[in-house]
Specification:
The complex is a heterodimer of chains A (about 110) and B (about 120). Chain A is mostly beta strands. Helix content of chain A is about 0%, strand content about 50%. In chain A, strand 5 and strand 6 form a beta hairpin. The chains are: A mainly beta (about 110), B mainly beta (about 120).
Chain lengths: ~110, ~120
Amino acid sequence: DTGVSQNPRHKITKRGQNVTFRCDPISEHNRLYWYRQTLGQGPEFLTYFQNEAQLEKSRLLSDRFSAERPKGSFSTLEIQRTEQGDSAMYLCASSSLPRETQYFGPGTRLLVL
Amino acid sequence: AQKITQTQPGMFVQEKEAVTLDCTYDTSDPSYGLFWYKQPSSGEMIFLIYQGSYDQQNATEGRYSLNFQKARKSANLVISASQLGDSAMYFCAMREGLEGYQKVTFGIGTKLQVIP
């Protein structure tokens, strides 16, 4: 399977703990995106990378959130000092030229207790 | 103003019938792209169909077609011959600007239920 993969698929943590999610994009895609989706809403953009460069960050991405894509391949999204409001589905997507259609992974469901 | 508006929170359709899911968008940029995604209960967003603002013809992909009315800023998804597996959330999304700018905005979705 050469689609976008995300790990873990589910994460339960206690408030105040740090969590890290991983995304492996489609291999030939140079752009990678993170979104957050809460119940009853569409995905909200968090950040995106072109190769290893982080080109845009949403205001939704507070100082507790950090994303990296160190070698332009996989990416990690870390949330420090989690809060109950961070409970959501975190989606990763990747794309490439020419159309730049974003293909999504299965997501990581985070529950903060 | 909402960039993407989906006014149907839920829709029902009889199996084998066609259904139209509404989407209107708001942008002042002449160059944009419109997407539809399907999200089953498992959570994965599945790409269905794309329409570019300069495309002359409405996009079609198998049983999916996009009724693109540029002057009205609408991009409705038409699913023909509905199947039980079509039951899911459907999201309309827009990318503004040239293809070098990648931020995509999603609507709140429409829940489609196909009735046997």
